[in-house]
Protein backbone atom coordinates (compact mmCIF):
# COMPACT_ATOMS: atom_id res chain seq x y z
CA UNK A 1 0.00 0.00 0.00
CA UNK A 2 2.89 2.41 0.65
CA UNK A 3 3.96 2.20 -3.01
CA UNK A 4 0.46 3.28 -4.03
CA UNK A 5 0.24 6.05 -1.42
CA UNK A 6 3.52 7.54 -2.61
CA UNK A 7 1.69 8.59 -5.80
CA UNK A 8 -1.14 10.33 -3.95
CA UNK A 9 -1.09 14.12 -3.65
CA UNK A 10 0.90 15.08 -0.54
CA UNK A 11 -1.70 17.61 0.63
CA UNK A 12 -4.14 16.90 3.46
CA UNK A 13 -7.80 16.45 2.70
CA UNK A 14 -9.84 14.40 0.29
CA UNK A 15 -10.31 16.98 -2.47
CA UNK A 16 -6.83 16.54 -4.01
CA UNK A 17 -7.31 12.77 -4.01
CA UNK A 18 -10.73 13.19 -5.59
CA UNK A 19 -9.23 15.37 -8.31
CA UNK A 20 -6.63 12.67 -8.96
CA UNK A 21 -9.29 9.95 -9.12
CA UNK A 22 -11.50 11.92 -11.50
CA UNK A 23 -8.46 12.72 -13.63
CA UNK A 24 -7.48 9.06 -13.96
CA UNK A 25 -11.05 8.02 -14.76
CA UNK A 26 -11.27 10.84 -17.32
CA UNK A 27 -8.12 9.64 -19.09
CA UNK A 28 -9.72 6.20 -19.39
CA UNK A 29 -12.92 7.86 -20.67
CA UNK A 30 -10.86 9.74 -23.26
CA UNK A 31 -9.27 6.54 -24.50
CA UNK A 32 -12.63 4.83 -24.85
CA UNK A 33 -14.01 7.84 -26.76
CA UNK A 34 -11.33 7.20 -29.38
CA UNK A 35 -11.86 3.43 -29.36
CA UNK A 36 -15.65 3.10 -29.52
CA UNK A 37 -18.82 5.17 -29.80
CA UNK A 38 -20.72 3.00 -27.32
CA UNK A 39 -20.09 4.92 -24.09
CA UNK A 40 -20.28 8.39 -25.61
CA UNK A 41 -23.61 7.40 -27.15
CA UNK A 42 -24.90 6.64 -23.67
CA UNK A 43 -24.41 10.30 -22.75
CA UNK A 44 -25.58 11.82 -26.02
CA UNK A 45 -28.51 9.69 -26.97
CA UNK A 46 -31.29 10.58 -29.34
CA UNK A 47 -34.57 11.87 -27.93
CA UNK A 48 -37.04 9.44 -26.42
CA UNK A 49 -39.28 7.68 -28.93
CA UNK A 50 -42.64 9.35 -29.44
CA UNK A 51 -45.42 8.25 -27.14
CA UNK A 52 -48.23 6.11 -28.60
CA UNK A 53 -50.61 9.07 -28.30
CA UNK A 54 -48.32 11.29 -30.42
CA UNK A 55 -49.39 11.78 -34.04
CA UNK A 56 -47.64 9.37 -36.37
CA UNK A 57 -45.10 10.75 -38.78
CA UNK A 58 -45.15 10.23 -42.49
CA UNK A 59 -43.15 7.26 -43.79
CA UNK A 60 -40.44 9.54 -45.21
CA UNK A 61 -39.79 10.97 -41.73
CA UNK A 62 -39.56 7.59 -40.02
CA UNK A 63 -36.13 6.08 -39.50
CA UNK A 64 -35.52 2.61 -40.79
CA UNK A 65 -34.50 0.08 -38.11
CA UNK A 66 -30.89 0.15 -39.37
CA UNK A 67 -30.60 3.95 -39.23
CA UNK A 68 -29.50 5.65 -36.05
CA UNK A 69 -30.84 8.94 -34.74
CA UNK A 70 -27.94 9.19 -32.29
CA UNK A 71 -26.00 12.44 -32.81
CA UNK A 72 -22.63 10.88 -31.87
CA UNK A 73 -20.25 10.51 -34.78
CA UNK A 74 -16.67 9.23 -34.74
CA UNK A 75 -15.46 12.84 -35.05
CA UNK A 76 -17.67 14.13 -32.22
CA UNK A 77 -16.57 11.23 -29.98
CA UNK A 78 -12.89 11.98 -30.61
CA UNK A 79 -13.49 15.70 -30.02
CA UNK A 80 -15.22 14.85 -26.74
CA UNK A 81 -12.31 12.54 -25.85
CA UNK A 82 -9.79 15.30 -26.52
CA UNK A 83 -11.78 17.82 -24.48
CA UNK A 84 -12.08 15.30 -21.64
CA UNK A 85 -8.34 14.59 -21.75
CA UNK A 86 -7.51 18.30 -21.57
CA UNK A 87 -9.79 18.67 -18.54
CA UNK A 88 -8.17 15.65 -16.89
CA UNK A 89 -4.69 17.16 -17.32
CA UNK A 90 -5.81 20.40 -15.66
CA UNK A 91 -7.43 18.44 -12.80
CA UNK A 92 -4.29 16.33 -12.39
CA UNK A 93 -2.19 19.48 -12.03
CA UNK A 94 -4.71 20.79 -9.49
CA UNK A 95 -4.51 17.57 -7.47
CA UNK A 96 -0.78 18.08 -6.93
CA UNK A 97 -0.78 21.92 -6.88
CA UNK A 98 -4.03 22.60 -5.10
CA UNK A 99 -2.58 25.63 -3.26
CA UNK A 100 -1.87 27.47 -6.52
CA UNK A 101 -4.77 29.90 -7.06
CA UNK A 102 -4.49 29.89 -10.86
CA UNK A 103 -4.49 26.10 -11.15
CA UNK A 104 -7.30 25.85 -8.61
CA UNK A 105 -9.39 28.29 -10.63
CA UNK A 106 -8.67 26.47 -13.89
CA UNK A 107 -9.77 23.17 -12.35
CA UNK A 108 -12.89 24.85 -10.96
CA UNK A 109 -13.62 26.19 -14.44
CA UNK A 110 -13.30 22.69 -15.97
CA UNK A 111 -16.15 21.50 -13.76
CA UNK A 112 -18.24 24.62 -14.41
CA UNK A 113 -17.81 24.28 -18.17
CA UNK A 114 -18.55 20.55 -18.02
CA UNK A 115 -21.71 21.18 -15.97
CA UNK A 116 -22.88 23.90 -18.39
CA UNK A 117 -22.15 21.66 -21.37
CA UNK A 118 -24.03 18.63 -20.07
CA UNK A 119 -26.99 20.66 -18.83
CA UNK A 120 -27.29 22.56 -22.12
CA UNK A 121 -27.18 19.32 -24.11
CA UNK A 122 -30.01 18.04 -21.91
CA UNK A 123 -32.14 21.17 -21.42
CA UNK A 124 -31.39 23.34 -24.47
CA UNK A 125 -30.27 21.17 -27.38
CA UNK A 126 -32.05 17.94 -26.47
CA UNK A 127 -29.16 15.69 -27.51
CA UNK A 128 -28.95 14.11 -24.05
CA UNK A 129 -31.62 12.44 -21.97
CA UNK A 130 -31.51 11.91 -18.22
CA UNK A 131 -30.29 8.42 -17.47
CA UNK A 132 -27.19 6.51 -16.39
CA UNK A 133 -25.06 7.93 -19.21
CA UNK A 134 -25.77 11.55 -18.30
CA UNK A 135 -26.20 11.17 -14.54
CA UNK A 136 -22.57 10.24 -13.90
CA UNK A 137 -20.97 13.26 -15.59
CA UNK A 138 -23.60 15.65 -14.19
CA UNK A 139 -23.17 14.36 -10.63
CA UNK A 140 -19.36 14.47 -10.82
CA UNK A 141 -19.38 17.96 -12.32
CA UNK A 142 -21.99 19.28 -9.85
CA UNK A 143 -20.48 17.67 -6.78
CA UNK A 144 -16.93 18.66 -7.65
CA UNK A 145 -17.94 22.21 -8.48
CA UNK A 146 -19.72 22.65 -5.15
CA UNK A 147 -16.91 20.90 -3.23
CA UNK A 148 -14.18 23.01 -4.81
CA UNK A 149 -16.15 26.21 -4.26
CA UNK A 150 -16.75 25.31 -0.59
CA UNK A 151 -13.09 24.38 0.03
CA UNK A 152 -11.52 27.29 -1.85
CA UNK A 153 -10.51 29.22 1.28
CA UNK A 154 -9.08 26.12 2.95
CA UNK A 155 -6.79 25.14 0.10
CA UNK A 156 -5.83 28.63 -1.04
CA UNK A 157 -5.43 30.11 2.42
CA UNK A 158 -7.68 33.06 1.67
Automatic annotation (TrEMBL):
Keywords: Endoplasmic reticulum, Lipid biosynthesis, Lipid metabolism, Membrane, Steroid biosynthesis, Steroid metabolism, Sterol biosynthesis, Sterol metabolism, Transmembrane, Transmembrane helix. It is found in: Endoplasmic reticulum membrane. One of its GO terms (biological process) is sterol biosynthetic process. It is a multi-pass membrane protein. InterPro entries: Erg28. Residues 47-72 are annotated as: Disordered. Belongs to the ERG28 family. This is Erg28 protein. It comes from Clohesyomyces aquaticus.
Amino acid sequence: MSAFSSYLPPVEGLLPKWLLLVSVISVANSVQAYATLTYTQRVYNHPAPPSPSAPSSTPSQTLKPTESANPVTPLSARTFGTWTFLSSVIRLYAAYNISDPLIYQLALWTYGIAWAHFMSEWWVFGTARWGAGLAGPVCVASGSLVWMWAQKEYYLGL
